[in-house]
Amino acid sequence: MRYIRQIETLLLVSEMLATNSGQKEILTEILNLLEKHLSYLRGTILLLSKDGSVLTIEAVNATSTVVDKDILYMRGEGIVGQVVATGVPSIIPDISDEPQFRDRIHRRKKEASGDFGFICVPIKIENEIVGTLSIDVPCSLHLNLKDETKVLTIVSSMIANDVKMRRASKLERDVLEGEILRLRDALGDSFKPENMIGNSKAIRDVYLKINMVSRTNTTVLIRGESGTGKELIASAIHYGSPRARNNFIKVNCAALNENLLESELFGHEKGSFTGALTTRIGRIEEAEGGTLFLDEIGEISQSMQVKLLRFLQEKEFERVGSNRTIKSDVRIIAATNRNLEEAIKNMSFRSDLYYRINVFSVFVPPLRERKEDILPLSNHFVEKFSKKLSIPVRRISTMAINMLMHYHWPGNIRELENCIEHAVIVSHGGVIHGYDLPATLQMPNTKDIKSTGNLKKRVAALERDSIIDALKHAHGNINVASKELGYTSRMIRYKIDKLKIDYRSFMEPAEVL
Fold first, then answer.
1. DSSP reduced 3-state for 294
2. Which of 108, 167, 233, 378 places its Cα 20 to 30 Å from the Cα of 306?
3. What are the structural domains, with CATH classification, of the chain?
């Protein structure tokens, strides 16, 4: 009986919609179910775009041959477009007799077009039409198309409820994700360590991780390129932890050979090797109750990795030349710029040691990925070296800022610090100009800095940038700008006219009373 098959099919559709599969997969399975149990052909589900202007293919029957899944139907175009526009189902007993039938999706053979009827019903969420469900009905089955339309309308209602729930769920997720991002930004500002500078999203994520792990005794692995400030992060973790009153001991594993590193970490007894004139405690004992920072841990030898692994596992060690076991209470923070996963594949780093140190990982982004932090870092280093070198520097010129922002910084923050120190030393007049920066920054590939042309053009470009920068700082006041540049105001006015500089654009707007 057809009626019984229809009821059974509707039950199967409802059970299918109760699963947690993706929307497209579920809708495709529903169309396959309709074909298998009710003999419908070329089932197609179209959904409206967000702006409601076009219908796009969301799902088609698995056995259907679709010419182009990127085909679009405008609202009101063809039978499906009219169903969306009117909200009324459409029943076509013979598609060959219907001039409005576009046949753009499946491209049925013309000689067989008279063998099929077509039913299209709207998919409605309350009073909003969000798409269409359409099928072909073989004329040979002699079905009552009105009864089949009722079945399809029920299926479309079930699909509509599923689409509604998925949309509501997505909206809820979007709201929650937005709130999480807002809270993360707020927390990032709240938990900013005192020894770190920057407010980019990338570095705020680092601040959050520092705050989360600082309160624990968990082993931390800090990863990132050389010069990104991994030691500062280790320091921030220690001084934000319950161990802050105890020692923070640093060891550069790459700076010592295997024997020296073993003695440095574990200490040695008098006479344990040539030159061991006295007993010496190691860095681990110095860090008792505090934190031991192992920088460049990826550089240690295989045999040293074994000894370090034993210490991490057992929390005990022996000094070189001694068989007395010493218990230790030390937190380990390690750092590396190496790809340890690749080193494990190459058999140069032990996987068991990797899993011991990689309990909580903090990735430090390179400076080129946190451009927003370049200027505050630069200002910090200007202040630092201005005091240290007793060279008064008030600010960085616009031209120099452009050069700093466009450089790719392969050496990261360490390179930036060195560049600013160099610029402070060679600067004059209390301002760092573009020409005060090191040679590596003098030829950036930017539109702001003129690095081509003859000498006369380069000098004119440099002169123009210097005058504009002084006018910006003086808010368009030519007399103040001329004093900063060391020229008379008459000469600066001449240069402004010659170089066609609009000094008025730098003036502060007058207050309206």
1. strand
2. 233
3. 2-169 (3.30.450.40), 201-365 (3.40.50.300), 369-506 (1.10.8.60)
